[in-house]
């Protein structure tokens, strides 16, 4: 079965195709790369890889920023297929934001090949105070923002990038960031209290893909297995059998199923083991209101997990 590295190679191939199409379009129009700057409404143009990061940028930027995500709501950042229009958006942006750590490194190639002069912000790498989670193969898990306290560190980097791109509005960005981090601190505290009420015996879970180690470490859960090694790749019959056995021996009480993925595999394993499927959790994407913001999505996650596990 293809491994996560194979998924990244496939994504790189799609990026190359998109770049060729975009280059042809630019040549046909007789123009070069767009010059980064404010949008037509006078707002700073910011392009991010996911809706999660677009929301963080919008919270810091307020009405001075137009933050847009390349991967649409409900899309999969791991297997995203860029379009020529995405290249044009990157070329005209003042700031581009990605997570790094292998999650969305395809954006770096898009920025380089689009000849963009936008400032590039990598949110998840080399953050002081973060206890990074590493797999047996040495790959660092990229889902750092799933710990709400770590998301506040993302906000700091976004604030610095926006202030550098638009110094005249730096004080507004600083005020927005401070207010938003206060909201994040309340969410972190509330989540710890809500999930802290879950009985100790109920805190063992399975996840669909490996998106919850930071969430689990922060809020007292133990993830004992994942259904897929990488999104888009179904496990073999043998791997499913091994996972079913692990669920039974570990005493896992629930499977975390994310909003952007089909839940059939999770439901099949649940039927074999009697565990609960916690559907519609958010990690790489936001949802519809009120889960269309990071605060709303993480509040939903905490409430759903607590309800399923007896918190």
Word description of this protein:
Residues 1-36 have low confidence and may be disordered. The longest helix has 27 residues, at 170-196. Helices cover 47% and strands 12% of the residues. A 4-stranded parallel β-sheet has the order 2-1-3-4, sandwiched between helices. It has a 4-stranded parallel β-sheet with strand order 6-5-7-8, sandwiched between helices. The chain is globular. Helix 1 (4-29) packs across helix 3 (84-91) and helix 2 (51-61) packs across helix 5. It is of the alpha/beta class. It folds into 2 domains: 4-189, Nitrogenase molybdenum iron protein domain (Rossmann fold); 190-309, 3-Layer(aba) Sandwich (Rossmann fold).
SSE blueprint:
Blueprint: H1 4-29, E1 44-48, H2 51-61, E2 65-69, H3 84-91, E3 95-98, H4 106-113, E4 119-122, H5 148-165, H6 170-196, E5 204-207, H7 213-219, E6 222-226, H8 237-250, E7 254-258, H9 264-273, E8 276-281, H10 294-309
Parallel strand pairs: 1-2, 1-3, 3-4, 5-6, 5-7, 7-8
Helix pairs in contact: 1-3, 1-4, 2-5, 5-6, 6-10
């Amino acid at each position: 079965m293809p491994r996560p590295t194979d998924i990244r190679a496939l994504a790189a191939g799609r990026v190359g195709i998109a770049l060729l199409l975009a280059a042809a379009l630019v040549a046909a129009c007789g123009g070069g790369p767009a010059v980064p700057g404010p949008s037509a409404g006078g707002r700073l143009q910011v392009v991010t890889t996911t809706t999660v990061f677009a929301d963080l940028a919008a919270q810091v930027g307020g009405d001075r920023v137009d933050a847009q995500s390349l991967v649409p709501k409900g899309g999969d950042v791991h297997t995203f297929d860029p379009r020529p229009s995405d290249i044009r958006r990157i070329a005209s942006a003042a700031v581009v934001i990605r997570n790094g750590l292998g999650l969305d490194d395809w954006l770096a190639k898009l920025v380089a090949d689009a000849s963009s002069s936008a400032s590039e912000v990598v949110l998840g790498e080399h953050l002081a105070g973060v206890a990074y989670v590493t797999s047996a193969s040495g790959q660092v898990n990229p889902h750092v923002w799933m710990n709400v306290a770590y998301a506040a560190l993302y906000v700091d980097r976004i604030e610095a990038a926006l202030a550098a791109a638009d110094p005249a509005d730096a004080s507004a960005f600083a005020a927005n960031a401070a207010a938003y981090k206060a909201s994040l601190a309340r969410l972190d505290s509330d989540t710890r209290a809500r999930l802290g009420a879950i009985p100790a015996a109920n805190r063992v879970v399975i996840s669909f893909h490996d998106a919850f180690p930071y969430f689990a470490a922060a809020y007292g859960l133990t993830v004992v297995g994942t259904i897929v090694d990488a999104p888009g790749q179904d496990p073999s019959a043998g791997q499913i059998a091994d996972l079913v056995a692990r669920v039974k021996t570990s005493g896992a009480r629930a499977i975390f199923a994310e909003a952007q993925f089909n839940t059939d595999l999770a439901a099949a394993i649940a039927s074999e083991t009697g565990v609960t499927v916690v559907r519609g959790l958010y990690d790489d994407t936001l949802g519809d209101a009120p889960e269309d913001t990071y605060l709303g999505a993480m509040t939903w996650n905490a409430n759903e997990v607590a309800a399923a596990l007896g918190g």
